[in-house]
Amino acid sequence: MRTLSVKLDDYVVDLLNKEAKLRKSTRMELIRASILDFLINKDDAADLAYIEKHREDELLSFEEVFED
């Protein structure tokens, strides 16, 4: 494993401290979990863009979707 140096402002560090205390975890575990979650779910922006593009599309009725 490699070390990654990151500078965070006091507000973010305070939030991390509070969240770590609530979860009975360490700040590093929270940061590591957040980075992994971000990388696993990185396609969310594309999903949101797709939803926004098709927001005004007319929805089909139940019968239209499931008719034989």
Task: Describe the structure concisely for a colleague.
The chain is mainly α. It has helices at 10-23, 27-40, 44-53, 62-66.
Helix and strand topology:
Elements: H1 10-23, H2 27-40, H3 44-53, H4 62-66
Helix pairs in contact: 1-2
Describe the fold and architecture.
The relative contact order is 0.07. Helix 1 packs across helix 2. The longest helix is centred in the N-terminal third of the chain and has 14 residues. The chain starts with 9 loop residues before the first helix and ends with a helix. It has 4 helices and no strands. By secondary structure, it is mainly α.
Which characteristics define this entry?
0% strand, 4 helices, 63% helix, 68 residues, mainly alpha
Tally of DSSP helical segments: 4
Whole-number average pLDDT?
84
Structural class: mainly alpha
Low-confidence stretches: none
The rounded distance between the terminal residues' Cα atoms is: 56 Å
The backbone outline, from C-alpha atoms, is elongated
State the order of secondary-structure elements, H for helix, E for strand: HHHH
Largest sheet at a glance? none
Give the helix level as a range of percent.
Answer: 55-70%
β-sheet strand percentage: under 5%
How many E-type strands? 0
Q: State Rg.
A: 21 Å
